[in-house]
Every structure is written in structure tokens, then in C-alpha cells.
Design goal:
The structure holds 2 protein chains of 2 kinds. Chain A is built from 15 helices and 8 strands. Chain A is of the alpha+beta class. Chain A has a 3-stranded antiparallel β-sheet. A 3-stranded antiparallel β-sheet of chain A has the order 6-7-8. Chain B has a domain of 94 residues: Alpha-Beta Plaits, CATH 3.30.70. Chain B has 5 helices and 5 strands; from the N terminus they run H-H-E-H-E-E-H-E-E-H. In chain B, the strands form 2 sheets. Chain B has a 3-stranded antiparallel β-sheet. In chain B, strands 1-4 form a two-stranded antiparallel sheet. The longest helix of chain B has 12 residues. Chain B is elongated. The chains are: A alpha+beta, B alpha+beta. Chains A and B meet through helix 2, helix 5 and helix 6 of A and helix 2 of B.
Chain lengths: 370, 151
């Protein structure tokens, strides 16, 4: 028996997760608490480990394509784009212009779908129940376009190496235009619900601050980095898939707290609509598949391609040994890197804010555990 | 002063409530009443697999080329074939498809050269047993028969 007295302030170790609904999956956070104050956190990951990188070594390049959708299942199309671009770089081919524009439309639509799910669940965690219903309602419209285009709503398998398999369906452009027109007033509606709401502000402002220097130290990317004031977006910094043709802005904020990350993501949704509006007006005619053989057999070499996924920099590093199967496929998932900053953001905060900070990082455990 | 009044009269909260009440209008109802009201899935939807028969004579379209089994990332398709000495052609003897391992990526239907294997719009694949998930040739040709509820 420890000889602690009643008045001793003892530290309490508390397990949060893996079944906790606010950890957005199966993240387990071991919290060290002093009353309400968080003294430190320890993340236990791996509950959703499926060995995707190892699976890649036993599949052909085309066969591995559906598996990447299952890493960040909220933004499956972005994952597919990253993988396809990496293998295309290995093969030294480029998708035809028509395929590139359709890819941009679908990835931006997926960015909106991902941010909508984030907004709904994040608000739900914090206590605003209403936005989740509205967000999922609008997300449904985006998922319907995915379903009509490629036959699946979530794990889409929309892109193929070298371009696209599916031609756009009848009325695709009209539906994307309708979505853009419908969506901007809906963002205003969410902002009306949340942006000036005093409870929302009290819960978010000044919580989980991560400065620009700390972001760079941890390698944090995406909206978390931009909310700290760093103007870094791979769509502008290293344009891929024809992003240099579109006119859009990188929303940034200065403070790097949870509220700023919320504002940045809301702005990003508006910018995504802007990109889609430009892209849908300029879908060129032409083939949708590049010059890729039936059997994909890249020359010996390696390629790293990173894209701006909704959650940050998503990188695919593919090594080829000249056979039909990748020698190694390494994924740089944005959620995994962003999660490392959790301890820094929450240390010294209150236990109620842990949920807010996990929510604001926008993690997907499928991607962290792979 | 104005700010204080705004705060006292809960302007920000009423602003949010206005949105909520605007969405109360019954014409914005979005929920599908699923078992009674069945969704119409998209034409390209990748659901239950089906092995197509020739509509004219009822014979299977499958030529037992094994390409779908080779394309499948999960190796869940097994194609059995036999050489017919009379016609000197390979003929399909059995075909199993394990839907419990299938991720509906559609690579098998892309690989099929004669459009025999197809992922259809049927999406209700639940069964009571694990063995029921492994579909044989007959099941693949007939397709699932989900119970339809009328309310």
C-alpha cells in the first residue's frame, strides 16, 4: 500500500478509447490527469492494422489499387489519385487531359465530402448536434455523384493507372454544376449555425494551439499547418494533375487554434467549389486512358508522389524491381503525422478539450494504422 | 453597448435556431424509409456478382478462361473447367465466388472478355451463415433473393 494521504494530489491514468466514439475510430489515448488537467498523453495505435503496405508486395500494380481506398476511407478518391500518380511516374506516362480534369473534379468533390464528415462529427463531439445531420445530407449528394460515376459510394476505385476506366456518365457536368450551386449557400448555413455561436467559440478559441514552428517540427501538414499561418499547399507548391490551371486561394489563419482550423476548413470547402466550377467548364474532349499496357510492368526504379489530400500531404513511395508487383510501397499518411502533435497540443489543457483536439486534427484510423 | 445588447438578447444563438427552424419544413425531409422504400442504386453500381446466361438459349456465356480469377486481388474466384472432346472447347463445370472476402472493386468484371461475370445492382447480401456467403454457379446465375417487406 502506498502511504498516500487523502490530501495528496495523485495522478490519474485514464484510458480513452479504443471504443470511445470521439476518437473517430479505434484510437486509444492514455491520459495522465491531475484532476481535470492533462499532464500528458500517450497514443496507442494499431487496432486497425491490416498490413496494407505488405499486401502491396503480393499484388500486381493494378490489383493494389482498390486497397488504397481502404486507408483513408473518407477520402478514398484522393488516395487513389496519389497511388495512380506514383505508378504513372514510375511508368513515365501521364494521364490524358480529359482524365486529369475529371480527376480534379472528383478529388475536389471528395475533399468536400471529407470536410463535411469532419465538420459534422467535430461539431457533434463538441456538443452541437444539428450540423451533423445537415452535413451528411449534403455529403449524400456528393456520394451520389461518386456512385453514378464509378459504382461505389465510399471505397470508390475510381481511377486506374494511366487515366480513367469509366467515361463520365450522362449528365455528370450538370450534376456537378448543380452541386456547386447548391453547396455554397449550405456552407453559409453551417457558418450561421457555428461561426458566431458563443458556445462554439468558447469551446474552440485558444484550445490546442500549435504554432507554425511547432507544426514544422512535427511535420504537420494540411489545414492544421495552414491555420498556423503557413501558406503551404501542394496543389500550389508542386502542382499535379493540372492544378496550376485553376485559380484558387490558400486560406490561412494566424493563431493556430482549434477555431482557426475550423475556419480554414470552411474556407477550403468554398475554394474546392471554386476549383470544381472552373474544371467542369473546361472538360476537354479526348481519350481517358493513357498509353499503359494490359500488364503493368514499370522499369526498375522508385517514385515518390505527394498530393494535397483533405487531411494534409499524402505521399506514395513506390519501388519497382522490374516485375509486375511493387517491391515496396510506402505510404506517408497525413493523419499519422498530424497525430504526433496531439500530445503537444493537449498537454496542460483540460480533459474536455481532448475530444475537441482529436476532432480538429481530422484523423482517420484506417490511414494511421494501415 | 451594441455588443452587450447582442449578448444579452442571445442574438448568436437565435441566428442558429433560425437555420434549424428553416430546415423543419416537411419538404426538406431527406430520410429514406429503407425496407419499405427501396433505393434505386446507380446503373454502374458494383453489387452482387452475377454469371450471365445467353438470353437466346440459356447457356452460360462463361468460356472458363480464368481471367477473372487471375485479376481478383483476393483470389476468391475459382473456375473449374473441362475439355469437351466433341466440340474441342473448354466448358465450365463449376464456379465459386466468395462474397465474404469480396471488396467489390470490379476488377473481375473488367477482366471478363465476354461480359459473363458482372457486378449487378443487387446490394442485399446478408446471410445467416458464413457458408452462405460462398456462392456457387447456380446462386451466381440466379442472384440473391432478398425478402421484400411491405409496410
Amino acid at each position: 500500500m502506498p502511504d498516500a494521504t487523502f490530501l495528496d494530489s495523485t495522478e490519474l491514468v485514464l484510458n480513452m478509447g479504443p471504443q470511445h466514439p470521439s476518437t473517430h475510430g479505434v484510437l486509444r489515448v492514455i491520459l495522465k490527469l491531475d484532476g481535470e488537467k492533462v499532464l500528458g498523453t500517450d497514443c496507442v495505435i494499431g487496432y486497425l492494422h491490416r498490413g496494407v503496405e505488405k499486401i502491396a508486395e503480393n499484388r500486381t500494380y493494378a490489383q493494389f489499387n482498390p486497397y488504397v481506398d481502404r486507408m483513408d476511407y473518407v477520402a478514398a478518391i484522393s488516395n487513389g489519385l496519389g497511388y495512380c500518380l506514383a505508378v504513372e511516374k514510375l511508368l513515365n506516362v501521364e494521364a490524358p487531359p480529359r482524365a486529369q480534369v475529371v480527376r480534379v473534379i472528383l478529388t475536389e468533390l471528395n475533399r468536400i465530402a471529407s470536410h463535411l464528415l469532419w465538420l459534422g462529427t467535430h461539431a457533434l463531439d463538441i456538443g452541437a448536434i444539428t450540423p451533423v445531420f445537415y452535413c451528411l445530407r449534403e455529403r449524400e449528394e456528393a456520394l451520389k455523384i461518386f456512385e453514378k460515376y464509378c459504382g461505389a459510394r465510399l471505397t470508390t476505385h475510381a481511377f486506374r493507372i494511366g487515366g480513367l476506366l469509366y467515361e463520365t456518365y450522362e449528365g455528370f457536368e450538370r450534376e456537378v454544376r448543380d452541386f456547386c450551386k447548391m453547396f455554397v449557400p449550405k456552407v453559409d448555413e453551417y457558418e450561421e449555425l457555428l461561426t458566431n455561436n458563443r458556445i462554439w467559440k468558447a469551446r474552440l478559441i485558444g484550445v490546442g494551439i500549435l504554432s507554425a514552428e511547432e507544426c514544422k517540427e512535427y511535420g504537420v501538414t494540411g489545414p492544421v499547418l495552414r491555420a498556423a499561418g503557413v501558406k503551404w499547399d501542394l496543389r500550389k507548391a508542386q502542382p499535379y494533375s493540372g492544378y496550376e490551371k485553376y485559380d484558387f486561394e490558400i486560406p490561412t489563419r494566424a493563431n493556430g487554434d482549434t477555431y482557426d482550423r475550423y475556419v480554414v476548413r470552411m474556407q477550403e470547402m468554398r475554394q474546392a467549389v471554386r476549383i470544381m466550377e472552373q474544371a467542369v467548364e473546361a472538360i476537354p474532349e479526348g481519350p481517358i486512358m493513357g498509353k499503359v499496357g494490359k500488364v503493368i510492368k514499370p522499369p526498375v526504379g522508385e517514385a515518390y508522389v505527394s498530393i494535397e489530400a483533405p487531411k494534409g500531404e499524402l505521399g506514395y513511395y513506390v519501388v519497382s524491381d522490374g516485375s509486375t508487383q511493387p517491391y515496396r510501397c510506402r505510404v506517408r499518411p497525413p493523419s499519422f503525422v498530424n497525430l504526433q502533435a496531439l500530445d503537444r497540443m493537449i498537454r496542460g489543457g483540460l480533459v474536455a478539450d481532448v475530444v475537441a483536439v482529436i476532432g480538429t486534427l481530422d484523423i482517420v484510423l484506417g490511414e494511421i494504422d494501415r | 453597448m451594441f455588443k452587450l445588447l447582442k449578448k444579452i438578447f442571445l442574438v448568436d444563438l437565435f441566428q442558429g435556431l433560425r437555420v434549424t427552424f428553416r430546415n423543419q419544413n416537411p419538404k426538406y425531409i431527406y430520410t429514406e424509409q429503407y425496407p419499405a422504400e427501396r433505393p434505386q442504386v446507380a446503373e454502374r453500381y458494383r453489387g452482387a456478382p452475377r454469371l450471365n446466361n445467353n438470353p437466346d438459349n440459356g447457356e452460360t456465356l462463361c468460356i472458363a478462361c480464368n481471367l477473372c480469377a487471375l485479376a481478383c486481388p483476393e483470389n476468391l474466384i475459382v473456375v473449374g473447367s473441362e475439355r469437351n472432346e466433341a466440340t474441342r472447347r473448354k466448358e465450365l463445370t463449376y464456379f465459386t465466388y466468395d462474397t465474404s472476402r469480396c471488396m467489390f472493386c470490379g476488377l473481375c468484371e473488367d477482366a471478363c472478355p465476354v461480359d459473363a461475370l458482372e457486378l449487378t445492382q443487387d446490394f442485399e447480401l446478408a446471410t445467416y451463415t458464413r457458408e452462405g456467403q460462398v456462392w456457387d454457379r447456380q446462386m451466381l446465375e440466379e442472384g440473391p433473393k432478398p425478402t421484400q417487406y411491405k409496410c
